[in-house]
Design brief:
Blueprint (H helix, E strand, L loop, with lengths): L2 H13 L4 H16 L2 E3 L4 H9 L2 H20 L6 H22 L2 E3 L1 H9 L4 E2 L3 E6 L2 E6 L7 H14 L6 E8 L2 E9 L3 E3 L2 H10 L3 E4 L4 E3 L3 E4 L6 E4 L4 E3 L3 E4 L16 E3 L2
Parallel strand pairs: 2-6
Antiparallel strand pairs: 1-15, 3-4, 4-5, 5-7, 6-7, 8-12, 9-10, 10-11, 11-14, 12-13
Length: 271
């Protein structure tokens, strides 16, 4: 199977309305993604492993969002701008919603549903609500920083690749007040906040160059890493440093932080 045949197959599953046969085929593609037979050229091998670590729902949603991007590229290759990003994001969210409802991992009124099960939120960030689930945290992540689901899903993939000790595992999807949400679970880390000076050393020891200390931004030619401040980095009781939240992206030239990568949704299959 080549790239065109694969995306034609996925788009046919979408158009047919996620029939049982179509859902089975998506599960097969997800399994091939996890085993590495399906190579998603958007990611490095380590990043593809990070996507797989996010769970089956994360893998399928990543592919479904990629299908919309393939269609958009074919029909409107030269259209850009923020409005176009909003349109693409809306289409991706609608596709993922239809699939999630078909497989039973969709939640209406996410934040109210989580509060009914887990109690009141214990924290709130720029794009996430956080709930206590004992040994883990459950987070409802919106698209405030990303606009398109595919970019928010990339963020989960990259977090898992670079910070596997605090892996984000996708439980499902939903909406709150009409806004698309990704529901994830993450290990709870008990500890203290790490000062910015130590975070800077930590990031640079990982190979990142500090770009802007005012918004805690670091980068390599491959990866953009931001929002790495003291509330998002924890030192455990054993003295280990854990990143529990960050804004991490594939570093493209458009981010103006020395990025060299190109966003693609092309695939190929190992024999």
């Amino acid at each position: 199977m080549n790239n065109k045949d694969f995306w034609d197959s996925v788009n046919a599953i979408i158009v047919e309305g996620f029939t049982p046969e179509g859902l089975q085929k998506l599960d097969e593609y997800a399994e091939q993604f996890v085993t590495g037979r399906l190579v998603y050229q958007r990611f490095s091998p380590a990043e593809q492993h990070g996507c797989a670590a996010g769970g089956p729902a994360h893998v399928v949603a990543t592919l479904l969002a990629g299908a919309e991007n393939q269609t958009d590229r074919a029909t409107s290759p030269d259209v850009g701008g923020f409005q176009r990003e909003l349109q693409r994001g809306k289409k991706q969210a609608e596709i993922i919603e239809k699939w999630a409802k078909a497989v039973g991992c969709w939640t209406d009124d996410v934040n109210n549903a989580l509060q009914n099960v887990l109690g009141a939120k214990i924290a709130e960030g720029g794009e996430a609500m956080v709930y206590d689930h004992g040994a883990t945290l459950v987070k409802s992540i919106g698209l405030d920083y990303f606009v398109q689901p595919i970019l928010a899903l990339d963020r989960i993939t990259l977090h898992n690749a670079f910070f596997p000790e605090t892996t984000l595992y996708v439980l499902g999807f939903g909406r709150t007040d009409g806004e698309f949400k990704i529901i994830v679970e993450q290990p709870f880390v008990k500890g203290t906040h790490v000062p910015d000076s130590e975070i800077s050393t930590f990031a640079q020891n990982m190979g990142f160059k500090q770009i802007n200390p005012k918004n805690w931004t670091y980068a390599t030619a491959e990866i953009y890493l931001s929002d790495l401040h003291d509330e998002n980095v924890i030192r455990s009781e054993e003295g280990n440093i854990f990143v529990v939240d960050c804004d991490i992206r594939i570093n493209t030239p458009e981010l103006r932080c020395g990025g060299v990568r190109k966003l693609t949704t092309d695939v190929w299959f190992r024999e």
